[in-house]
Amino acid sequence: MGALLVILVALIGWFFYELSQRRTYPVQAGVHPEIDLPHTEEWEIYQNRISLCSKKLRVCMEELGLAHKSHHVDLIETGSYENLGRAFLKINPGFTVPVLVHRGHPVYESHEQIVYAAENAGPKGAELLGQTARERAEVARWVDFGALKGDPMKGGADRAGDSAPGLTIPIFATMIAYIPWRKLFEGLLFHGDRKRPLLFMMMKLRGIKGLPPPALRIIARSRKNMGKHLDALEKTLGDGRPWVCGQVFTLADVSWMAIFERLNEVDWIDLFLGEGGRPRVTAYFERIKARPSYAVALSERGEIHVKALRDLREAKRSSSKLRLQLEGR
Question: What count of Cα atoms within 13 Å lies in the side-chain half-sphere of residue 126?
């Protein structure tokens, strides 16, 4: 009994010590010149290969031609809660990726990061921001539309960026099968929003064919809203313009490139663009895929992701009920 008590006290002490070393709190979006982080290059990014917002920043850096050092940060979906580790929390106590670091100063939130990078990238940046006041206002509107600002659990009625996370739930349910339980428990102990690790643990227990009704409702709302956003994009492209804001590729297209790759990598493209639906959007997606930045910034997929996508597709092929639940068809 005495030994067990010692072990219990030691575990409690360890937990509270770790908690004190892993302080998390919200951070204000934008650049923080008052913070100086260790760096070796002018531009550095902390990102994750599957993170939607990381995709947006990676594309932007490639389009701007900004040489940068990239640090991959694991999220639980790609193997571990590295974003909750002591080292990363010194970079971003808000525990989210990506983080853009310019001359040691962090910039938080991807919709702020791509604008900041463009503003500091000379003529090419000016092109991506829009050349006239009217163009800049239009680009800014679309950047906001592609941002993840609201509650993604509501399905993203106002922004395409907010519709994307709900559509990622199915592949998260297959990815989490490859993550050890001990890794999930770390999130339960230290995550700033414990609803997220609890959801992942439920997914691991129930699997893709056992998604709870609340998760299915989020997917349905996100699917419906993303369809509306793509209809709006179809209408915008109706005058023959090649890019969202006209004849020139801008940050508006950077945002959409990340969203389309998210839809592509989690098996939604056929639902939204198949059978001749939304032909202008389909042609736009093909133009996006032809840009060098698409291959450079978005081609990498980890082993867990590849296996999970295979599992998701097989689950939908083998269960018409699941396909109906996820896709409504």
Answer: 5
Give the pLDDT of residue 322.
Answer: 96
Instruction: Quote the pTM value.
Output: 0.95
| 3 state SS of 170 | helix
H helices within 266-319, ranges in order?
Answer: 269-273, 279-290, 292-298, 303-318
Task: Identify whether the C-beta of residue 55 lies closer than 8 Å to the C-beta of residue 31.
Answer: no
* 297-321 confidence digits (pLDDT tens): 998 888 999 999 999 999 999 999 9
For residue 190, which of 28, 46, 10, 20 has the smallest C-alpha distance? 20
197-246, pLDDT tens digit by residue?
898 899 999 999 999 898 999 999 999 999 999 999 999 999 999 999 99
Ranges under pLDDT 70 in the chain: 1
Token pair listed for 87: 């080292």
Q: What is the pLDDT of residue 303?
A: 93
Strand order in the sheet with 99-102: 30-31, 105-108, 99-102, 43-47, 69-72
Whether a cis peptide bond, with omega within 30° of 0, leads into 98 is: yes
Distance CA 101, CA 96 (A): 14
- Distance separating alpha carbons of residues 93 and 244, to the nearest angstrom: 35
What type of residue sits at position 248? V
Residue type for position 74 = D
d(CA 286, CA 44): 30
What local confidence, expressed as pLDDT, does residue 1 receive?
64
Q: Strand (E) positions, 4-133?
A: 30-31, 43-47, 69-72, 99-102, 105-108
SS3 8: helix
List the domains of the chain with CATH numbers.
27-143 (3.40.30.10), 150-327 (1.20.1050)
